[in-house]
Amino acid sequence: MTLPPDHPAIPTPKVGVLLINLGTPDAPDAGAVRRYLAEFLSDRRVVEIPQLLWQPILRGVILTTRPKKSAHAYQQVWTPDGSPLAVHTRATAHALQQAMGQGVVVDWAMRYGNPAIAEKLAAMKAQGCERILLAPLYPQYCAATTATANDAAFAALAAMRWQPAIRTLPPYHDDPAYIAALKASIDRHVAALDFVPDALLASFHGMPERTLHLGDPYHCQSVKTVRLLREALALPVHMSFQSRFGRAKWLEPETEATLARLVKDGVRNIAVVTPGFAADCLETLEEIALRAKAVFLDQGGEKFALLPCLNASAEAITLYQRLMGRELSGWID
Ligand SMILES: C=CC1=C(C)c2cc3[nH]c(cc4nc(cc5[nH]c(cc1n2)c(C)c5CCC(=O)O)C(CCC(=O)O)=C4C)c(C)c3C=C
Ligand SMILES: [Fe+2]
Ligand SMILES: [Fe+2]
């Protein structure tokens, strides 16, 4: 619509983009890990066992044993600026803010722990953001990640008399811009290795298998990402699921078992990528770069590299500008 020349300009409402990631402890010690795990593992979207049965197991067994073990793992990857997940997510928000300019307020929050989603939504509102895009940074939709992040945001909005207008970022597992960002990042990091990988392993965070049968699209979307990566890359791409938790059957094939099988099949030099994680974290830097590597070498593998997640790379910022720009259509010029 073209306005007549004497028409006063219509003020554009301020727009916010809230990047949301999973969350991480405030410190690599058992107390902070316990507080984080208590919140995370009490989420009904994550552990789908009736709370009456689950809470005694969580409080009586898991929270008395796991925090110490997990704290030790966090200590191995902790940085002077904090937990890697928080460091990379914060850097991503800052870089995206630079790229998107002052017309949009870009900030970041965590589903569990700090900075909390409610606190960041309140801060955006206080800055005058009347329209907010919630952007859970999960390429593959999962109720245990994407949905619970949105739930927490809507729970915070439920307490507001004057809510901002809200949009949510859809999954981007098959978006050409995501595949292009992964390809560019993988090609760049493979070229910098001191060896030529025989193959690539794409390792995704696991989920209980029953969630697939209940209709969660996470498994199918992860498989599609891998198919598109295979089409884009020159190297053979294998796929697996990591980070098992609890006694239920989880998605297969499992990452460490897959690495052992690949060695048996003759793969000696491997590069592992984790396309389901927007940012490097405990699950990539400790579980894969340290523990899975040890398994691969122990089985007779020779060279192992974990390639970084997209993090706050130029590829990531180009991707997020495209994804966010599309969702903000009609909200910004
Ligand atoms: C990227 C997608 C993720 C899915 C899907 C997911 C499901 C899921 N996770 C747990 C249990 C744990 N996950 C933990 C760490 C963790 N998980 C993700 C991502 C997904 N989880 C990330 C990014 C991280 C890293 C956090 C960090 O601080 O760096 C942990 C905590 C660490 C530990 O004690 O092992 C647990 C526990 C379940 C049960 C689940 C689905 C049902
Ligand atoms: Fe997890
Ligand atoms: Fe793990």
UniProtKB/TrEMBL annotation:
Q: What class of enzyme is it?
A: lyase
**Spans through the membrane:** none
Question: Where does it primarily localize?
Answer: cytoplasm
Q: Which PROSITE patterns match?
A: FERROCHELATASE (PS00534)
Q: Does the keyword Cytoplasm apply?
A: yes
State whether keyword Membrane applies.
no
Q: What does this protein do?
A: Catalyzes the ferrous insertion into protoporphyrin IX.
Recorded family membership: Belongs to the ferrochelatase family.
Q: What is this protein called?
A: Ferrochelatase
Task: Specify the species.
Answer: Sphingomonas bisphenolicum
